Every structure is written in C-alpha cells, then in structure tokens.
UniProtKB/TrEMBL annotation:
Organism: Xylocopilactobacillus apicola
Stored Gene3D superfamilies: 1.10.1650.20, 3.20.70.20
Domain Ribonucleotide reductase large subunit, chain residue ranges per copy: 558-580
Name of the protein described by the UniProt record: Ribonucleoside-diphosphate reductase
Keyword annotations of the record: Allosteric enzyme, ATP-binding, Deoxyribonucleotide synthesis, Disulfide bond, Nucleotide-binding, Oxidoreductase
InterPro entries documented for this protein: NrdE_NrdA_C, RNR_1b_NrdE, RNR_lg_C, RNR_lsu_N, RNR_N, RNR_R1-su_N, Rrm1
Amino acid sequence: MAISKIKDPTYFKLNNKINIPDHGKIPLQYDHKAIEAFFEENVKPNLKWFPTLKEKLNYLTDHKYIEKDFLARYQLPFINKLFNYVYDADFKFKSFMAAYKFFKQYALKTNDNEYYLETFEDRVAFNALYLAEGDEQLAILLADEMIHQRYQPATPTFLNAGRARRGEFVSCFLVQLTDDMNSIGRGINSALQLSRIGGGVGINLSNLREAGAPIKGYANAASGVLPVMKLFEDSFSYSNQLGQRQGAGVVYLNIFHPDIVDFLSAKKENADEKIRVKTLSLGVIVPDKFYELARKDEEMYLFSPRDVELEYGVPFSYVDLTQEYDKLVANPKIQKATIKARDLETEISKLQQESGYPYIINVDTANRSNPIDGKIVMSNLCSEIMQVQTPSVLNNDQTYQELGRDVSCNLGSTNIPNLMKAKNFGKSIETMVRALTFVTDNSNIDTVPSIVKGNRLAHSIGLGAMGLHTFLAQNQIMYGSEESVEFTGTYFLLLNYWTLKASNKIAKERSETFADFEKSDYANGKYFDKYLEQDFMPKSAKVKQLFHGIFIPTKKDWQKLKNEIMQDGLYHQNRLAVAPTGSISYINDTSASLQPIIQRIEERQEKKIGKIYYPAAGLNNETLPYYVSAYDLDMRKMIDVYAAATEHTDQGISMTLFLRSRIPRGLYEWKNEREQTTRDLSILRNYAFYKGLKSIYYVRTFTDDGDVVGANQCESCII
C-alpha cells in the first residue's frame, strides 16, 4: 500500500466523534481509537521496515535521505545504543492530532511521498546525534530531553536535522533599512534570499524619508514607505520556498513617522489596490512618549526621518524620541506634521478589529530592560525577538562601506508540564542551551552578510516555553489567578538562572564571550541588582508545593552567579524568547506557548481532509473547569501572567489578545454595552504597556457567526 492509496480511513470519522456529546459528556475514548486506527491503517502499512538499524542507515544515506558526515562522528555500537534508548522510552502519542501532525509534516518520507522512512523516535535520535556533534554524552542527554518531551527544538531544526536535502535550522530574521536607494535594493535582495531558505523576515522601514520629502533639492520627490512595502510584499510572494509555503514578512514603522496613517491604511480591506498590502504583516514601533501624549489627549508631532538623521548624525530609529521629543518639536530644521494622539490610537484599534494588525512593539520598555550595549529598534515576524542592531553603510555598487549587524532567530521551547517533572531541572536546561548553541554556531546565512555578522558576534539563542495552561489545569489552578502569576514568575526565574549558568559554563569552556560583553550590564553586575535586592521565592503554599524538590536560587546563589559571570562572561548575548508554538505544541500534547486555550475541543480545518478535533491536553472531569477559553477570559489577567514571565526574560514574549465581538457581560467593568469597541483595545494596549510588556503580537476577534477575524495564517516563525 502507499499513503495516497488509502481509501475510506476510519480514523477521521472516529476523531470527529469526540465533538458529538454522548449523554452530555465528551467521548474522549474516540480520539484514542482514532490513534489506534491511524497507526493500523496509515502508518504501519506504509512505514519502510529494515531488519537492522545498520541496513536502515545504509539505505537512508545511500539514497541521500540522511547525511553521512554526522553519523560518521559516532561508532555504530553507540548509534545502536542511542536508538535503543529512545525506543525503550515507550513513547506514545496522546492524541490523534499529535500523531497525524507528526507523520504529515515532520516524518521523513520517500521522494514520491508515498512511504514513511522514520518514526518519532527516529526523528528524535537523528536530532540528538546531529546536534551533539559527536559528543556521546550530550547525544544521550538530548535524546532523553526530546523523547520525554521536555525540550522541543524549533520546527526548522527538528524537521531538518540530519537530512541530506534540508533547509536552514533557524526560524526568522530581522533586517533594517537606511534612507537610501542602495539600502532598499539590498534589503529587497535580503528578503528574497531569506524567504527562499524558509524563515519569516522582519523589515524596519522607520529610517526611510516620508512621502513628499525632498531628494537632492527636488521638492516633494520622495514616494514614502508605501511603495517600498509593495516591493517587499511582491518579493515574499515570489520567493515562496519552491511553492511549498508562502514567503512571510512583517514591516515595522515608528509611530512618529509622517507616513504612519498611510502605513496603517494599507492594510484596510477597502484600501485602494495600488497601496493595499494583503499578505504582508504590519508592526508599529511605539516609544513611551506616545502613551503620554495619548493619556493627556494632546497633539503629537510626526518628524521627518531624513531631517532627524541630518541633525543627530544617526538613522531615525537610533534617536531616543521620548527623550528628544521636545527638542525635536522646537527645532525649526526638522519638518513635522501633527495629529491627535488619541485619533491615531483609535485608528490602530480600528485596524486591529478589522485585521488583527498592527503588532505593537513598546520599544522604550524593551530598551530599558536590555542589558546589552546598543539599541533595540524593531522585532521579528512574531514580535518576541528583541536584539540590538547596528545599521550598514553601503557603497553605490551595494557593497558594504560599513557592515552593520542584523539578527537571526535560533529558537527552542521547554514543555512546562514535562520539565516540571524533571529529575534535574538545571541539567535539562543546560542540555537545551547546548542544542541551541549548536544551531547558532552552525548557522551561516552567507547571502546576507549583516545576518552572518550579527549571529557570529552575538551567539544569541531564544529558549521559551509552552504548555502553561495545560500545567495550570492539571494542577487545578485558574489561568490568571494570583497563583498562576506566581508560578509563571518562578518558572521563568528558573529559566533565566539556569540559562545564565549554562552560558557562563560554555564561556569558560571556550574562553569566549559574546562581542562587547565588557560593555554589558552583565559585566558591570548591574543586571543582577534586582535579584540581590528582591526576594523572588514563592510565597503561596500551592506554588511552594509545585516546586517542592526543585532548586530555587536564593540571593546568595545569585551573588555567586554574578561573580562568576563578571569574571568569565557569557557566551550568548541573548538567551530567552517565547515564540508562538503551532503544530509542534499538538505533537507535544500541550497548550500553545503561554496563552490560554481557545476551545476545550479545538476544531482545525485541514486542507483536503476536513475538520480534525483536538481535545485540550489532559482534559477530564477534574481539569474541565480550569480550561476556560481565552475568549472568555479578562485579557488583563492574561497580561498579568505574561508580565510575570517578562520580568525574567531578556528578549520578548509573543502575546496575542483574544476578544469576542460581543463581550460577555461583566467581563470588563468599564463596559455597559456588549459590542467590542476601539476603546476596549486601547485600554488593553495601555494596560499591557503599564505592566511592562514589550510587545503585543496579534489581536484575534471571535465573531457571533463563529468566524475569527485576524487569524494569522503565517507559520514561518513559530516553533
């Protein structure tokens, strides 16, 4: 039999039955029957079988399915030992969706896509061997973390590790433009190249002069950012990874840019086709000053980026607009326009209701907590990567007069429910950091030199987390409660502590730190002040019990770590970032990222298949009351949870807001009417800002007819 020859399978029908209540109960047993049927009818008949592992490896390497070089780093007896280890773990998929997603999207198949060449255990083994680079002990540790689903590499890594014909291991990229045609041309080439290899691309347009600005003395010559946006949209559409997936990008613009209203209008459904962008995502860079002006209901000034650059000698993005605002207003050399701050805030809310865009980057918040010398000026496709960049200076032939620094994202995720069961929390984290370090050390995107330079100097990684709601429900804690906030803060404190320990250990082993470590707040010790001045130990009995037996660092431990880092440094410039988790969270049988679930029985529309249903992980009579939909949750409670994690996260956290078009009565005290209004979104954005969140990724609105407005279709950057 071949996969395409399967006729009338029973597993989809069995899975669909879980959405039909049986005497008022959810018949979860049908999902387990669907798993069994899927393996009997689909996997087992179409999985190529080999008498021995040696024969299997010979077949895979001879037919150029798997690389030879990484296997050659190990002796065959050890490879046998590792494969036996992962199979002896007796891994089982816990939902039909998990099994279906793995074999459809991740399992290696024959060239004609008709037969499977690997199981989940095989994919874990190949990842462990590849990422360990010949280190047998590390390979076993990595296999242990992945087969027990405590650690999940990002999709590009997990999918491609070991494959002979593969894409890159990294998830996404950040690139900035400066105000000249050479930079625009180079940026478009970068977008084409980066989209081709599989990552989502963030582009910062804030430095470009506005529409109508002069060029070399010619008045009203500049076309502004909108035509450049269209060029990028067409580039991503053209460079679509051999037709397998739509290229994806986000363009960012500072809220004080004169083109900001036109920028937002380009995403409206009724926008003129000449300016409308359909597939490009939009993000707005928001300094603190905007929130102040909106709060005071004042006019705000929009400044010509070219004039600001001429006055300050650096691109517009690198000027602290909050600090320099009054000087910019008073400077007659700087062309400026005005708009009511609240009118602009309303326009943002209207567009978020209509499309889910724009993303919001609270850039001053990000820079205040940034321990690295330099300036954060933008983010990525999912708004969680926040790293310093420097602009490039280009010659007329588009060679580099001065090569700047841009960003690639090396991501992975902890599975909270499973990691909380780990025998050695710290050892698990160190193993994960070493896996991510392999990715950053071996990433070489040579088509975009600024990306190569940034990665080579920073060695940055982004370890995150998924399964928060699952863990809370399993432990009968309401999402958004004080206990949930306290647990989240403690968990991320541990991630912070142990990634610092691991990065310091690697720096010692290699006698190497990230570039300009000596200029960072790690080197001068300032970063550790809050851990030495505040007590972050759990307070409630419930949270203390959850962390029973797990080491939590005291002030004394933080002081010791501070001394070690000041002496020997850190290998990684950045360590933590929480990305969205898409299909991979189903395979891990856990809730996505840090967000609440959407439905207890989630409905997914699969192309050519129809609907597949996914019951929330661990759903039963005990957990049912604790699985409240995000659409029925006060979003301020969710923001409180994310704020607790942000406190200990050196980069950002991708956070989506969820609202119904008709909001449940009593959910928000300021509402008399039930219809969602622009005021609701404005209040929530401001609440997120005052709670210290660095970004808002997306806004999703659930309508009365069961549709979702602003359902982001891009999966280029998610884990």
